[in-house]
Write a structure and sequence with these properties.
heterodimer; A: mainly alpha; MetI-like fold; two-stranded antiparallel sheet; 12 helices; 2 strands; B: alpha/beta; D-Maltodextrin-Binding Protein, domain 2; 2 domains; four-stranded mixed β-sheet; 42% helix; globular
Chain lengths: 305, 457
């Protein structure tokens, strides 16, 4: 026979989960919600952060930001970065995962570790080290190229090469995460279905195309959306590799915000906040797309993905 | 009183209750400050909790500390370029309690109203001389000798320096020159100084950058600026520039130059101070020459009066102790210590010759004494000039960034871009004048100023 808990005891018990949630709620409020609300408020002010005095200027900061060609330059660079690196990471991650998932590949663990190692390395350190790697005077890349008779390329100092170099390093750094997502996704493809396809005489390509791919589509949507979101947050790598230069050629929106908030001769927290709010709105659109994508993926997978 | 480390500065020693907190960004002065503070404490003063910041980080730390009422008792302004009169109005500083003793210790004519004193009260004073510049031609004597050049007669004209860089490059011992192309502020400094050697009637540092002192107009598009930029970037075209220069700021460029990446390096007098501290093995090979001029004649440069170096916080409850500590900085002993530390030149240039500073540092000071003249300060004539500068929306990209853009080939219409900078700066100033009132564009013109003479207000 089970005893029904006393009414007061149940209430007391119900409090415990909230108590345990409290630290997270407080920290989330302090370090996520409050800064978001504050940047909305600051975006209506003219304030350098040095003065006690803040002037309310209405929508002027938004007008200034939207009229600034450098904002649109950084917006364009951020979008280009996403358009290039997201498909690259998703496809490359899948290719590596398929290779590593192959039952006959030796040293699988070693390779997985090797591809995942850059992910756990601090991004700022990767950025600084890459400055040495791509040093046009005596960096290893320059020496290899010179050894091959190729004239020196200033990978980080030339406006034509800098952004692409950052994209390549970013992809190398993060493709390991995408690979892990794909490896997990591949585990869900039932072996018996693949074996049944083999028994029916399907070739390796045919079973990939007609068995594996359809089963991976819900994962594809989620992995792509996660990658988009992650590839919008590239401040640390760009800051340490190029600082946004040469002449704004790699200045992504996050660097634009940082420049106005901290690096300008006289900082303008209002303009920085307005740009941040605009970036936030873009992220919101991405987030809504993500939500819709996840729902669609769930439906496609029969509601249990 | 509670003490805690703020930001990423390097605090010396543990937090001591009752200690004076001191923040500055003068790494080469570290041992001099330590000795001065120890002396202060021995003489009965409270201990000093001393933090040395990277200039850029100190700016951010001050920004945060002011808002959270954690300003240290004494601080330098680091990379902060908000005009001092404005910070004073907003209640950052306390007037110095030992003003009379400090005034008595300073050479006459140094304390300027609207710069160091306001309404008769002294807020700060300079410890460095205005007679200095940053486009000194430093070179490695060994590399010059190996390239067949005479280290005793460094290049004096723009063409001489280009030719010398070519000679080094061709000899294969190193690249011709190392430039900090990733550091816009320093590039702007070089161009503002080189333009003066090409005849531009202007000065450099802050409020008066790009302004023709005789008319008060912004003239970044003057022929002298075009010539200066053309010269500065000619090394890339001549293939005599150290290739990694595009990714170097002032500090990393100095390191690469010290590691014999290139023979020549443009830098301020503190170059030898930093090298003596970090790379003493290089110091014996150092040589230095004046800023090169288009025709090789001795340069004539103008600098405005140096602003105050340290300030006592309005949030401090130990203004008397802090002021007493600052009083030590006008002593002969401290000025001699400054010379020995080989950072910016001490206010009293006369102490350098007799100090134990490196011969190249003494040579720099000799050159500065002959070549640099003190110009006008806008804020001294009309304090509202400072409010205008504070109200001006910063013009981005500025001179330094534009030079970077020209260097990387992203800006091709140099003249048009510089004219745009002049126009945008003038428009920003005009808008701010309208906002502030009681001031006009005339306040930036100094018809009485003569090139090659100290300006008398």
């Amino acid at each position: 026979m089970t005893t029904v808990p006393h009414e007061g005891g149940r209430l007391r018990q119900a409090r415990w989960p909230y108590l345990f949630l409290l630290p997270t709620a407080v920290l989330y409020g302090l370090f996520t919600l409050w800064p978001i609300a504050a940047s909305w408020w600051y975006s209506f002010l003219s304030w350098s952060g040095f003065e006690g005095e803040k002037t309310f200027v209405g929508l002027q900061n938004y007008r200034d930001v939207l009229a600034d060609p450098l904002f649109w330059n950084s917006f364009g660079i951020t979008m280009l970065f996403m358009v290039v690196t997201v498909p690259l990471r998703v496809v490359l991650g899948l290719a590596i995962a398929l290779l590593l998932n192959h039952p006959r590949l030796p040293f699988q663990r070693l390779f997985r570790t090797a591809f995942f190692l850059p992910v756990v390395t601090t991004t700022a350190i990767v950025g600084v080290v890459m400055q040495f790697v791509f040093d046009p005077s005596d960096g290893p890349v320059a020496e290899v190229l010179q050894g091959g008779g190729v004239p020196g390329v200033d990978f980080l100092g030339s406006p034509d090469a800098a952004l692409w170099t950052v994209m390549a390093v970013h992809t190398w750094k993060w493709v390991g995460v995408t690979m892990i997502y794909w490896l997990a996704a591949l585990q869900t493809v039932p072996r018996d279905v693949l074996e049944a396809a083999q028994v029916d005489g399907a070739s390796g390509w045919q079973s990939f195309r007609h068995v594996t791919v359809p089963m991976l589509i819900p994962f594809f949507v989620i992995i792509t959306l996660l990658t988009i979101e992650q590839n919008l947050q590239i401040f640390d790598l760009v800051m340490t590799m190029t600082g946004g230069g040469p002449f704004y050629a790699t200045e992504v929106i996050e660097l634009y915000i940082y420049r106005w908030a901290f690096a300008a001769t006289v900082p303008e927290l209002g303009i920085a906040s307005a740009a941040a709010v605009v970036l936030g709105l873009v992220l919101l659109v991405v987030g809504i797309g993500q939500l819709a994508g996840v729902r669609a993926a769930r439906r496609a997978a029969g509601g249990d993905a | 009183m509670q003490h805690r480390a703020v930001g990423r500065g390097r605090r010396r020693g543990p937090a001591v209750p009752g200690a004076l907190r001191w923040w500055d960004h003068f790494a080469p002065l570290e041992s001099l400050q330590d000795a001065t503070f120890a002396g202060f404490t021995r003489g009965g003063g409270p201990p000093v909790e001393y933090t040395v910041y990277n200039p850029n980080e100190q700016r951010q730390a001050l920004q945060l500390a002011f808002g959270s009422r954690q300003l240290p008792d004494v601080f330098s302004l680091g990379g902060l370029s908000v005009p001092v009169p404005l910070l004073r109005e907003q209640g950052w500083f306390s007037p110095l309690a030992t003003a009379d003793a400090i005034r008595a210790g300073l050479p006459p004519g140094i304390v300027t109203d609207g710069v160091h004193s306001f309404g008769g009260e002294l807020y700060s004073f300079p410890i460095f001389s205005p007679r200095q510049y940053e486009t000194l031609v430093w070179f490695n004597r060994d590399l010059l000798a190996r390239a067949g050049l005479d280290p005793e007669s460094p290049p004096a004209s723009w063409d001489d320096l280009r030719a010398a860089a070519r000679a080094v490059q061709r000899s294969g011992v190193a690249s011709g020159i190392v430039l900090p192309l990733q550091f816009p502020d320093r590039l702007a400094a070089f161009v503002l100084e080189l333009a003066q050697t090409a005849g531009f009637p202007g000065t450099r540092t802050g409020d008066l950058d790009g302004i023709d002192l005789t008319t008060g107009e912004y003239r970044f598009h003057d022929e002298a600026f075009l010539a200066a930029i053309e010269f500065l970037l000619s090394f890339a075209r001549d293939d005599t520039m150290f290739l990694a220069s595009t990714a170097l700021d002032a500090r990393s460029a100095r390191v690469r130059w010290a590691a014999e990446g290139g023979a020549f390096f443009l830098d301020g007098p503190y170059n030898v101070g930093v090298l003596a501290e970090k790379f003493p093995e290089v110091v014996g090979k150092l040589g230095v020459g004046p800023i090169p001029t288009p025709d090789g004649l001795p340069p004539v440069l103008t600098r405005p009066p140096t602003s105050g170096t340290f300030y006592v916080s309005s949030q401090s409850d130990a203004v008397d102790d802090a002021s007493a500590l600052l009083e030590l900085l006008v002593s002969d002993e401290y000025q001699r210590g400054l010379a020995g530390a080989m950072d910016q030149p001490p206010l009293d240039l006369g102490v350098v010759a007799g100090s134990d500073a490196h011969p190249t540092y003494k040579r720099c000071i000799e050159m500065f004494t002959e070549q640099v003249f003190v110009g006008p300060a806008g804020t001294a004539r009309n304090p509202r000039v400072a409010q205008v500068h504070a109200a001006m929306t910063p013009v981005e990209p500025g001179l330094g960034e534009i030079v970077q853009g020209i260097a990387s080939g992203q800006i091709t219409d140099v003249r048009g871009r510089l004219r745009q900078l002049s126009d945008e700066s003038a428009a920003a100033r005009e808008a701010a004048i309208g906002e502030v009132g009681g001031v006009s564009a005339e306040d930036w013109a100094f018809p009485g100023w003569r090139r090659g003479e100290d300006y008398a207000a």
